Protein 1
Amino acid sequence: LDADNYETDPCLKEIRRAENYSWMDIVTIHKDKLPNYEEKIKTFYEEHLHLDDEIRYILDGSGYFDVRDKDDKWIRISMKKGDMITLPAGIYHRFTLDEN
């Protein structure tokens, strides 16, 4: 996927069409741009789940999604610019930044 041109990327457009993803938001996780940065970082890292699928597409930077497997163990997934992940509804997860 082309993170620099996500608005016009034909691959992303096809994924959105095929999966019927009609809504998106952009969250900039940077201490100078995200209000209440320290609070938000702690919230993102708290284990939680959603009733709907959660789709995340990294436009810049990098970080980690931790997800619980079927044996209740954490699996760490490294994410960087251009990566996309779909977390199924009901899966416990959390997110944290790395040094980048």
Note: The radius of gyration is 14 Å.
Protein 2
Amino acid sequence: MYLLRMTKRPGHAHSTSEPILMQTFDASGIDKEYQFYDEEAARVSQKIDEELKRDWVRRKDAQRRQVKVMLLGQAESGKSTLQKQFQLYYAHHALDHERPLWRPVVYFNILKAVRMILDELDHELNNLSSDDSVEGQAVAHSLAPLGDLSEEFSRLRTKLVPLVAMEDSLASELSGGVAVTGGRTGVYVRAGWQALVTPLSPNRSRALPGTGGLSPAVAQVTSLASRTLIAVQNEVDELWKHPAVRILLNNRRIRLDESAPFFLDSIKRVAQPDYLPSTADLLNVRLQTLGVAEHSFDIELCGSRYNWLMYDVGGARGQRHAWVPYFDDATAIIFLAPISAFDQYLEEDPRTNRVDDSLQLFTAICSNKLLKNSHLVLMLNKTDLLRKKLEAGVKVRKYITSYGDRPNTYADVSEYFRAHFIQVHRRHDISRRALYVHFTSMLDIRATQDIIVNVGEAIIRSHIAKTGLA
């Protein structure tokens, strides 16, 4: 090897015309050393390349085994309950771990129900005498044998004021500062709300011991709610079972959340110092999610493991824009339509019937180009509530005029709604894909989990066929 050395004459500036003297020496030892370094560098580089290639293959395989499922539908259609059913079947240990966190949410559902009953009682009893409608007169006639109820309900209200007064503070702690415009009250949480109400140890990996799984602020208000509920459980039970309340409920003068009857019927069980929510409690509890919540769990099929990513999205009209970024690579769409809601209207638009809104939303899903390759499942949900309404004599034609004079039976009504959704799919589905339709009641654990197994396997088999994993 040669080294270049430049010389210059003393006292003179260096000139490019001056000769460059080259000196030789023995570099054989250095050549061998450089050769060793070159071989070592090549070996390390090759090893890095091979590891990167293996990592790429692993990530590619993991991606191919990732099944992305979106739960779509309007608010209160049952999306979160379906997500819990999937979690109960495929990842029940995680759901068991969350049970203590749902305790304050159950309390909130009860507090809200009690407050709604008291408010509606005041309104109905104060205005019933001036209601000249046929329905109003019928209710007044039914209440007449009960006599003057003002003193009795005044006593119950006085006893229940401390309980009702806690509703806003409990909602505020559970919501973690999340506010909803329009003056609506309630618990509105974003994805990961469990972490926000759970205190973590310094290593940020688990809840602090002795807290019951709840952060200090939430634990404090939950404890107070528990003690208050235990103290007034008899009054809550008396209010709920009062003949006047039953008359107003049966005549649809009091409307409660769908979960309210379940928890008010269970007040003696819930109002215990060591209360821990049951599986039925978790499925019945009402909690409105804002934004998009991701849930992940593994599913095994034919000896292979697949990572199931389920996205539970907020269904209110103002939140539906958040769905679009998740459409592009969705493996499947499970659309939930609550057919029991034929007599209800959107909270954000009281002029729009909820079944009509579901049909419009389903039309948009079927015609969306981003979803043309997604497996499509339709769940006509809340059939249990539909049966109860029809058995109570609620007429479908009163709310949906196109139903006409068809029989007001479950078989006829459910088939009528099914035919309308199928017609939407036939007219508007841009990829002519198959539509899988199921009648569901998310509170029926056994029946729902049978459907979950069938739906899950169908989605994964479709995914296998598309990705070439078979």
Note: Strands lie at 2-5, 21-24, 66-72, 188-190, 288-290, 292-301, 304-313, 332-338, 375-381, 435-439.
Protein 3
Amino acid sequence: MTASTRRTVLSLYMRVFRIARSWQVQSGVTSDSETERKYILQEACTLFRQNQQLTDQESIKRCIEECEARIEIGFHYRNPYPRPTYLPPMGLATQKGRKLKAQQRLRKQAKPVYLQSHDET
């Protein structure tokens, strides 16, 4: 990891912590604000530690883009939780052979940038 990449990642990490510290729910309920703050901190720690061992510049860049996208989406919708994803047409094909591979490819292509770190369930 280059020095500039390291600086960018650390500044994003600190930015997420500052956001969590000042996060307010639109409803104004303090218990909800505290719950969402804890979620933001837990999610940041989990994802940053999960990606700590990355050395490939391209994958680091994708993770930085994902983090920035999630920050912007969280501010826009005032909701720190990931937005739901929807299956593309033909995303529920039969579970055999070629159609299964095509189904998996469609799901991978339909996954938004802000959910690249999450496993499929």
Note: Residues 11 and 53 are 18 Å apart (CA to CA).
Protein 4
Amino acid sequence: MKSRAQEKYTNKLASTRRIAEEKRAKAEVNLNEQAVKTSEKADYIRRTGHLPSSFSFKLPSTSWCW
């Protein structure tokens, strides 16, 4: 009985570790893709001196001022 519980616990722990590793790998891929896009936008701005039309700044709202 005890060995079965130990085996079940070990399997669950291994499964959790595998899922966590997959999520880490996916997050790293997304981060790398975002870095490539950012680099491409920066190169475009440096090359042309103009901001792309899809480029937008998110400025803080000043509506809280009285």
Note: The chain has a mean pLDDT of 87.
